[in-house]
UniProtKB/TrEMBL annotation:
The keyword Amino-acid biosynthesis does not apply. Its main location: endoplasmic reticulum. The chain crosses the membrane at residues 20-39, 46-69, 75-95, 116-135, 147-163, 184-206. This is HHAT palmitoyltransferase. GO terms for molecular function: palmitoyltransferase activity. Belongs to the membrane-bound acyltransferase family. HHAT subfamily. It is found in: Endoplasmic reticulum membrane. GO terms for cellular component: endoplasmic reticulum membrane. Pfam families: MBOAT (PF03062). InterPro entries: MB_O-acyltransferase, MBOAT_fam.
Length: 235
């Protein structure tokens, strides 16, 4: 059975995944395990540097600079410790993505539309992470401010597994997991890795199956079958 050709986003991420993202995720896993074995104390910073390098590789120096600029502005605004100001800052940063002149300038940075869309997706998701960090900075007391430094914000924003399209993890949970030190166990780590791979392939297969059996996006683009269907069928 042929695949639904109208599902642009799935095709888009599959293409990027096969070309680079899958390999960069494998690189992240390698850096994570090596740093855990050799320099566990500096693991967050090793992963931060890796995430920055991956961002530079995929989005170029200008794309990297945009994300770094957004993080810097968000952190500066968070110093006022006003949630409303943080939300306004985030909305303004997001709105810049839809300014025609800015869009045109960013498109010129890349050779293809797909590269520009990757920047757009990534900056949008990074804005959510900047907002999460800034809000938690506003909510916490002075005693907890040391754990919400700009360096920790960069480690959070450039954490590669959630870099392009999430999922969103709040900063407190991220920080808690990064600071937790566990004894290395080859058996437990291997079982976690195998289970993770099985989960990925299960959901990947399920998504592919849905695209081949449920032509949702093709139906969206054609009004005739939707108008002919009953309300029960549509529901």
């Amino acid at each position: 059975m042929s695949q639904d050709p109208m599902d642009f986003e799935w095709s888009y991420w599959i293409e990027w995944g096969r070309e680079r993202i899958l390999w960069l995720l494998a690189g992240h896993l390698l850096v994570s395990q090596v740093s855990r074995l050799l320099v566990e104390k500096y693991k967050p910073w090793c992963l931060m540097v890796y995430g920055m390098a991956a961002c530079w590789l995929l989005l170029g120096v200008k794309g990297f600079a945009v994300i770094l600029l957004h993080a810097t502005i968000s952190f500066a605004v968070a110093q006022f410790q006003l949630s409303l100001l943080t939300w306004l800052c985030s909305l303004i940063l997001l709105s810049t993505l839809r300014i025609p002149a800015v869009e045109e300038a960013k498109r010129k940075w890349y050779d293809t539309e797909n590269e520009y869309y990757l920047l757009l997706f990534t900056v949008s998701v990074r804005c959510l992470f900047c907002t999460s960090f800034s809000l938690e900075y506003c909510w916490h007391g002075p005693a907890q401010k040391s754990s919400h430094s700009f360096l920790w914000m960069l480690a959070y924003v450039f954490y590669y597994p959630t870099f392009h399209n999430g999922p969103l993890m709040n900063f407190d949970e991220f920080s808690k997991q990064m600071r937790k030190q566990e004894a290395f166990s080859l058996k437990s780590n291997l079982s976690i890795l195998i289970l993770g791979i099985i989960r990925i392939f299960f959901w990947w297969y399920l998504a592919e199956l849905m695209i081949h059996l449920m032509y949702i996006h093709a139906l969206y683009s054609s009004a005739t079958p939707l108008e002919a269907a009953s309300y029960w069928a549509l529901g």
